[in-house]
Specification:
The complex is a heterodimer of chains A (327) and B (439). The longest helix of chain A has 50 residues. The mean pLDDT of chain A is 89. With 327 residues, chain A is an all-alpha fold. Chain A folds into two domains: 121 residues, no CATH class; 159 residues, no CATH class. In chain A, strands 1-2 form a two-stranded antiparallel ribbon. In chain A, helix 4 packs antiparallel against helix 13. Chain B has 439 residues and is an alpha/beta fold. Among the domains of chain B are: 158 residues, Rossmann fold (3-Layer(aba) Sandwich), CATH 3.40.50; 71 residues, no CATH class. Chain B is 29% helix and 20% strand. In chain B, a hairpin with a 5-residue loop joins strand 7 and strand 8. The radius of gyration of chain B is 22 Å and the shape is globular. Classes of the chains: A mainly alpha (327), B alpha/beta (439). At the A-B interface, helix 1 of A face strand 15, strand 16, helix 10, helix 13 and helix 14 of B.
């Protein structure tokens, strides 16, 4: 008697897969990549290529020789990590080799040491970035200036980020109104400012984020509560003392808040699952970012804020259970 | 809350219900229902007629079984059902098609019913009626409302939210009046003012037909429902129609509801008005790669091989699985020699390309399973707990509330067999509870 194949139900599956999710995130990163290259030129292209290539290489090596498991490279998550890491560093000639170290830390320490995709408690790209920030403080805070379109030169002149200008100015005892060389809001929105190459252009980030929202890879909860909290909190500070604290619009358009809120904090592996949990997570990120920016020694706090909130994600998951249907 | 949107693939909606011919032998299983098996009351060599009682319900949770054919009992033995489970069965060699004289075989529709509620329930028991929505719960138990409880709503489940299945769809189109009479009878048995027919709004034609028919009856209301799987799950249907929620571990009657499948109401009509026991089912034969799609009225006890041979000749070479029921909750059959039973609603042939499960990878904690769960549970969490043998914790997180709809596995991008794990966990946790109550 010929027996047929059996299995438990259900017998059909949605076409959802990890691979599709990750490649869609890569698609969403393309606008930032193009803008970065337009503003920072060849260096930006090289930094991202090296970062992506190293992330893939290290993941392949670790899976093959240390973990001895089949390669999971084609799921695209190493490419996401590589691109996000590159987007979080200044696009300078120095970074082309430094970012390779960052890739090793991001993939090796940030992801594979926990067992690979899905098991890492912290966002791998941010682990790599913070490692580089602490280890290479000079190179990591030397920003290329933006001037002409697609600069070909390998060594561009260096400028400062708007947040760096503010921090330096306040440290030297100036008032905010005395800091004169701040870029206009329109420049900040379009990305014509100094900074890491993926974080400068709010328009490109929003295009990518809208794509992710439409494909339901992210939900609005984390970005809205992150940016909203940062806006409201910095607004309160600004109203208290406009000479000491920058205005809320500048706050959310400068530094990594947009990139962090839309692409780093929304990483599904390291953020809470329930909608309420995601709102709490975004709130924590926004609050910590503004605290670190205003009272910490670094001009920018998005990476630290997200990593700190990553650490409490398991707790948030524990507290925020979905509403049971049957009480 | 929750739910998913699988492709509905209702490709057999146009196929009118055909009478399936009677083969030379049938095998009638003695447990075709939830509960204890019926006791055979015929012996080898006995002559039986269509509709004659051959298996008697002796336990409380049990249902009568009647002969679907006329002929001679050739043996009483154990038979492997299509899922590989050994069950007591009566084998009957078919001779002619002689029906019991009590059964009204005229095509006329009989509208009047003068029976008292108690008599209706007794007749349901006599005719071996069980719920045809899948659980095959004996109808006479469902319609005997326990002391101290009161039925307020009768809900007719015509949602048919499972992809592919079209038997309810066809029954509504072809037997709308009989269904409404059946509903009126059940309303009377329960003493409820209104009956609500829930139909998913991807079936405009049945909604129209049932609305027109219901207008001629008192207290029958058609409720179109949002298209979402599992809209037809009992608890979700009750919630959609009444706004009430069946608490954990309770039954629909605890919130004043009785739910009946629409196919059952047709069987109730035939049993009460025509004296016809439950010996036939409406069965869909469907599949994307099949040469033709069918809806049949099939006697119980016919082997699935006979059904496939008559309807499509043979299974396509690329057949992956053959499923009894829909693709989301149906059971895969290992052995097509087994017979059909009461409550069998379809033969679904799934192609290899769809049936093969993709390789499992790490959970990426996307939460899709949790958002898809119509019961508000956390399948990803169960998966981790159960892999580590932490069944009691899974129990504390309400694992027994799981209705096994399969939304979690359906939506998992990492292809984790979440429902398989949850089933294991439920089983283990039930074992723990049983051992504890014994002490």
């Amino acid at each position: 008697m010929k027996l047929l194949n059996i299995s438990g139900s259900p017998h059909v599956h949605s076409d959802e897969s990890t691979k599709r999710i990750m490649w869609r995130v890569n698609m969403a990163l393309i606008p930032m990549f193009l803008v970065g290259i337009a503003f920072f030129g060849l260096n930006a292209l090289l930094v991202s290529l090296v970062s992506v290539a190293c992330c893939c290489l290290f993941q392949w090596l670790i899976e093959k020789f240390i973990m001895k498991v089949p390669s999971t490279l084609c799921d695209g998550s190493a490419v996401v990590t590589g691109l996000l890491l590159a987007f979080n560093v200044p696009a300078t000639a120095d970074m082309i080799w430094i970012v390779a170290i960052g890739a090793l830390v991001a993939i090796g320490l940030g992801k594979m040491s926990f067992g690979g995709l899905g098991k890492n408690p912290f966002n791998p790209a941010l682990v790599g970035r913070v490692f580089l920030l602490i280890s290479f403080p000079v190179q990591m805070t030397t920003w290329p200036t933006v001037g002409k379109w697609f600069p070909m030169a390998f060594d561009t002149t260096t400028g400062a980020t708007p947040l760096g200008l503010v921090k330096e100015g306040l440290k030297s005892g100036k008032k905010l109104s005395e800091i004169t060389d701040m870029p206009s809001l329109m420049d900040m929105f379009l990305g014509h400012i100094g900074g890491s190459f993926g974080e400068v252009c709010a328009v490109a980030i929003l295009i990518g984020a809208i794509y992710l929202l439409c494909t339901k890879i992210i939900s609005w909860h984390i970005p809205v509560s992150f940016i909203g909290t940062a806006f409201v909190f910095s607004g309160i500070l600004y109203l208290c003392n406009p000479e000491q604290f920058i205005d809320p619009v500048t706050t959310i358009l400068t530094g990594g808040i947009m990139l962090g809120a839309c692409f780093m904090a929304t990483d599904m592996v390291t953020s809470p699952m329930s909608k309420v949990g995601q709102l709490i997570f975004g709130f924590g990120c926004g609050l910590l970012t503004i605290i670190i920016r205003n009272w910490g020694s670094y001009p920018e706090g998005v990476s630290f804020a997200i990593l700190l909130m990553n650490a409490v994600t398991p707790l948030i998951n524990r507290w925020c259970k979905p509403a049971r249907f049957a009480k | 809350m929750g739910g998913v949107h699988p492709n509905d693939n209702k490709i057999s909606t146009e196929a009118a219900i055909e009478q399936f011919p009677v083969p030379s032998q049938v095998v009638v299983l003695m447990n075709q229902h939830l509960g204890a098996p019926a006791t055979p009351i015929v012996a080898k060599g006995d002559k039986v007629k269509v509709g004659q009682l051959i298996g008697e319900a002796q336990a409380f949770m049990c249902a009568n079984v009647h002969s679907p054919v006329s002929g001679t009992v050739s043996k009483i033995d154990i038979c492997k059902d299509p899922f590989g489970m050994a069950k007591p069965a009566i084998y009957i060699d078919v001779e002619g098609d002689e029906w019991m004289e009590t059964i009204d075989r005229t095509p006329d529709i009989k509208r009047e019913c003068n029976l008292e509620p108690k008599q209706i329930v007794d007749k349901l028991k006599e005719m071996g009626i069980v719920g045809l929505g899948g659980a095959t719960f004996p109808a006479h138990i469902k319609y005997s409302v326990p002391e101290g409880k009161k039925a307020e709503y009768l809900i007719i489940n015509a949602v048919e939210c499972e992809p592919y299945l079209t038997s309810d769809h066809r029954v509504m189109l072809e037997h709308a009046e009989e269904i409404c009479i059946g509903i009126s009878i059940l309303r009377k048995a329960l003493g409820v003012p209104n009956a609500y027919i829930g139909i998913e709004n991807n079936k405009p034609e049945p909604i129209r037909v049932m609305r027109e028919m219901a207008a001629k009856f008192e207290g029958i209301i058609v409720e179109p429902l949002k298209l979402k799987y599992p809209q037809g799950a009992e608890k979700q249907l009750i919630n959609a129609i009444t706004g009430r929620r069946v608490p954990s571990g309770k039954l629909p009657i605890d919130v004043g509801c009785v739910v009946s499948n629409v196919g059952t109401t047709f069987a109730v009509y035939e049993a009460i008005q025509k004296n016809k026991p439950l010996i036939e089912n409406i069965l869909t034969v469907t599949g994307k790669k099949l040469p033709s799609q069918h809806n049949y009225q099939v006697r119980i006890g016919i082997s699935y091989n006979d059904i496939i041979k008559h309807s499509i000749g043979e299974l396509p070479a690329t057949t992956g699985k053959v499923i009894s029921g829909g693709p989301m909750m149906g059971k895969a059959m290992c052995n097509l020699d087994g017979p059909t039973v009461k409550g069998a609603s379809s033969v679904l042939v799934i192609d290899e390309s769809e049936a093969v499960r993709a390789k499992e990878s790490n959970c990426i904690r996307c939460g899709k399973c949790m958002h898809a769960c119509p019961m508000g549970l956390e399948p990803y969490h169960f998966s981790a707990l159960i892999k580590n043998g932490r069944y009691e914790e899974a129990g504390a997180h309400n694992i027994l509330d799981c209705i096994e709809c399969g939304c979690c596995f359906f939506s998992c991008p990492a292809n984790k067999p979440l429902l398989d794990e949850v089933r294991l966990g439920k089983n283990k946790y039930r074992g723990i509870l049983a051992a504890r109550s014994k002490k």
